[in-house]
Structures are given as structure tokens and as C-alpha cells.
Amino acid sequence: MSAYSDGDCCSVWQDRWLMARKEHVCDACHETIRAGVRYHLTFFVFDGGADQTKRCARCEAIFAHLSERIRKEGDLEEHCNDRLACGHAYKERWGEEPPPEIAALAFWLPKDGSP
């Protein structure tokens, strides 16, 4: 079963944190993931096709929060977009402002120093 509990099976699904040995680009914010920095990789094979998503630590924290929020609602048909491109604002989706720690990450960029 996929990570989204939607009943469709992936023949391979790997979630892991890696240390970048070279520069990568985050699939969510499109910022550079510099060599020597940790990032999150999801690799999967579905219906014979392989794909992957790389997210910087900031985007992975936002993704994890949104995924958990959706899971708590019990909606098995909906999942967090792996590239954080759902088209919704937090307040529009849940009727409230995001938690301060998530709001702080929303506009923080690696060049800004620690959030």
C-alpha cells in the first residue's frame, strides 16, 4: 500500500534522510540543497515507473506537519502533495493560522541563518 493508504500498491517505497554529497534542488521550494546538508528522499516504484522526491529539511518539516494534520482528520482519500503544491493556504484549508513553528518555516530560506 502506498504511504497515502489509498489502496494502490507501490512495489518499492523508501523514505530516508541522507547527507548530500553534491548539490541538489529541493522539489518543494526549489532552493539548493548544499553538499554536506541533510535532506529527505522518498523513492518509489509505482506501476512500473520509478520516481523520487527530494525535500530540504525545512520543507520536510512542513510536509510532515501537513501529512500528520491530514491523517488526524481521518481522510484516507486526501494526502499532502509531496512537492507542497496543494494550492491551498493553511488558514483557507483549516480555518486557523498555522502553528508558530510552521509559520516560521514557511518563508525561511537556508541563506537566512537559523529559523
Describe this structure in words.
The chain is an alpha+beta fold. The protein has a single domain (12-110), classed as first zn-finger domain of poly(adp-ribose) polymerase-1 (2-Layer Sandwich). 25% of the residues lie in helices and 25% in strands. The protein contains 3 helices and 5 strands, in the order E-E-E-E-E-H-H-H. It has helices spanning 57-73, 90-94, 100-106; strands at residues 12-19, 24-25, 32-33, 38-46, 49-56. A 3-stranded antiparallel sheet has the order 1-4-5. Strands 2-3 form a two-stranded antiparallel ribbon. It is flat. The termini are far apart. The model is unreliable at 1-6 (pLDDT under 50).
